[in-house]
């Protein structure tokens, strides 16, 4: 009988009868090859028997299980093998399109969304893989990871190819790079938004985190393009590690720059200065950080051949990105903004943007995620104390950590900056949002950070539906009155 898969000096050979590549034993279908991946919490090798029971025709793993009576191929890296097998199984779909990787600590999703919008506006058939939506043109797949696992990613790229897409814009996380999820994806371009502290629980140090981001640019071919933020502290580090052509951007520095003409509460007006044109544009989203995002999009779009007049028109119609600066207003109630900001720099940028709103006071609903870098929690507290007038410390998704312990570590940062700064603990997130809205005056602003468009909150072993914007809308419709005890805190 012919083997389902074989590995030789020329790479993998997959029998036409194979129906797919799976790395989750629960998702194995008859005819699949199961790749056993050792993970932080679960070891896929322990589930080989389940995969076989569900119809797997071959197993790939990092250690041999002599009890398995199927073809079993041992490899140095299961993740690398999964990426190679998926690319082979789907027929190398990235080679049929112009593929763009967008990475960075903050701003990745906005750049992916907006570059996809601009390319589509210019007439390019463009697919998108992002942390909020995977749109192949043929299907829209919900996002569960910032960068999908390699079998899913290759499937999405294959759908784009089969639907006639010419471009694919892909959000690439540092986890996705280290865990080989984008291995074998042929990138024509990579964009770096910025690098600030994040994911040190996973990478262990900033040097390793920067190294992960840099690896994406190291692997670009000399005929590809790297688009880098000239004002980011790691610009030179990344630039010096790539052999690709580099285009830099920044408000004050770079080949693609912007002169800020108007810094509004809900928009910006800038003059974009590109080596090939200068043009005024009204960006329908506020904040310096969004100007940086627009400059990255500009550099990418022009390289792909989008005419300047079409580009400017598209930029003036940039769509809202789910969970980013989501403004909810009702007459007589405070302005409420829901934002995904979940890193120190992300929180800082959003709070700075609130200053232009000229509201009487800033109420901040703040939590930190469990199982993540503990060191950033007091840093976020220090930022909160420096910009917000009132802080309500609550629960994000604590997973298996104690929410009270997480909140206290953020509070420690608040006390370092201003021990008299008003803050409260309300670990029930819905009640924390209620407390902020009911305590704020109509000329205040309430900022709810950390989860953005997320629909599920993970507490211990439970997952519950919770959407911050839906909670806000329900509360505003109820037209609640401010209780006396909340008035006293506010005053």
Would you give an account of this structure?
With 491 residues, the protein is of the alpha/beta class. It folds into three domains: 5-84, MurE/MurF, N-terminal domain (Udp-n-acetylmuramoylalanyl-d-glutamate--2,6- Diaminopimelate Ligase, Chain: A, domain 1, 3-Layer(aba) Sandwich), CATH 3.40.1390.10; 93-315, 3-Layer(aba) Sandwich (UDP-N-acetylmuramoyl-L-alanine:D-glutamate ligase), CATH 3.40.1190; 326-490, Protein-Tyrosine Phosphatase, Chain A (Alpha-Beta Complex), CATH 3.90.190.20. The chain contains 16 helices and 25 strands. The chain has an eight-stranded mixed beta sheet with strand order 10-9-8-11-7-12-13-14, with helices on both faces. A six-stranded mixed beta sheet has the order 18-19-23-20-21-22, with helices on both faces. Strands 3-4-5-6 form a four-stranded parallel beta sheet. Strand 20 (362-366), helix 12 (376-387) and strand 21 (390-393) form a beta-alpha-beta unit. Helix 3 packs across helix 9, helix 12 crosses helix 13 (403-417) and helix 14 packs across helix 15. The longest helix is centred in the middle third of the chain and has 16 residues, at 288-303. The protein starts with a strand and ends with a helix. The model is unreliable at 483-491 (pLDDT under 50).
CATH A-level architecture of the largest domain: 3-Layer(aba) Sandwich
Q: Which value, in Å, is the CA radius of gyration?
A: 24 Å
Low-confidence stretches: 483-491
Number of domains: 3
Cα distance spanning the termini: 80 Å
Number of strands: 25
Rounded mean pLDDT is 92
Tell me, what's the shape?
Answer: globular
Largest sheet: 8 strands, mixed
Helical content stands at 25-40%
CATH level-3 fold name of the largest domain: UDP-N-acetylmuramoyl-L-alanine:D-glutamate ligase
Structural class: alpha/beta
The top-level CATH class of the largest domain is: Alpha Beta
CATH homologous superfamily title of the largest domain: Mur-like, catalytic domain
How large is the share of residues in beta strands?
15-25%
State the helix count.
Answer: 16
What spatial order of strands do you see in the largest sheet? 10-9-8-11-7-12-13-14
């Amino acid at each position: 009988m012919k083997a389902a898969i074989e590995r030789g000096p020329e790479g993998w050979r997959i029998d036409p009868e194979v129906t797919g590549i799976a790395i989750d034993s629960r998702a194995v279908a008859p005819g699949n090859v199961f790749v056993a991946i050792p993970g932080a919490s679960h070891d896929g090798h322990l589930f080989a028997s389940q995969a076989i029971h569900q119809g797997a025709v071959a197993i790939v793993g990092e250690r041999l299980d002599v009890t398995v009576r199927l073809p079993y191929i041992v490899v140095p890296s299961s993740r690398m093998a999964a990426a190679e097998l998926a690319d082979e199984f789907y027929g190398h779909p990235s080679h049929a399109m112009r593929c763009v990787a967008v990475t960075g600590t903050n701003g990745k999703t906005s750049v992916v969304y907006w570059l996809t919008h601009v390319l589509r506006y210019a007439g390019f058939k463009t697919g998108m893989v992002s942390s909020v939506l995977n749109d192949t043109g043929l299907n829209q797949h919900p996002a569960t990871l910032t960068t999908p696992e390699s079998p899913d990613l290759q499937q999405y790229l294959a759908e784009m190819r089969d639907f006639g897409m010419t471009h694919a814009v892909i959000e690439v996380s540092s986890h996705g790079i280290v865990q080989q999820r984008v291995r074998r994806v042929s990138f024509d371009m990579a964009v770096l938004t910025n690098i600030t502290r994040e994911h040190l629980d996973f990478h262990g140090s900033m040097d390793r985190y920067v190294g992960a981001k840099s690896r994406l640019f190291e692997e670009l071919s000399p005929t590809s393009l790297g688009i880098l933020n000239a004002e980011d502290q790691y610009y030179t580090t990344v630039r010096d590690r790539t052999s690709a052509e580099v285009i830099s951007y920044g408000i004050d520095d770079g080949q693609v720059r912007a002169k800020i003409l108007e810094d509004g509460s809900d928009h910006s007006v800038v003059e974009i200065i590109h080596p090939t044109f200068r043009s005024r544009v009204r960006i329908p989203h506020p904040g310096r950080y969004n100007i940086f995002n627009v400059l990255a999009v500009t550099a990418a779009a022009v390289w792909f051949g989008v005419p300047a007049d079409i580009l400017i028109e598209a930029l003036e119609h940039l769509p809202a990105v789910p969970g980013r600066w989501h403004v909810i207003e009702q007459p007589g109630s405070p302005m409420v903004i829901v934002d995904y900001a979940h890193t120190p720099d992300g929180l800082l940028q959003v709070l700075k943007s609130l200053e232009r709103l000229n509201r009487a006071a800033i109420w901040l609903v703040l939590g930190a995620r469990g199982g993540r870098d503990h060191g950033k929690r007091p840093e976020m507290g220090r930022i909160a104390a420096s910009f917000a007038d009132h802080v309500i410390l609550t629960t994000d998704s604590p997973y298996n950590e104690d929410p009270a312990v997480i909140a206290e570590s953020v509070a420690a940062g608040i006390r370092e900056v201003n021990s008299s700064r008003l803050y409260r603990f309300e670990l029930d997130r819905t009640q924390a949002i209620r407390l902020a809205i009911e305590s704020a005056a109509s000329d205040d602003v309430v900022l709810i950070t950390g989860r953005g468009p997320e629909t599920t909150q993970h507490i211990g072993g439970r997952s519950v539906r919770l959407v911050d914007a839906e909670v806000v809308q329900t509360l505003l419709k109820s037209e609640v009155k401010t209780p006396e005890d909340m008035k006293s805190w506010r005053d």
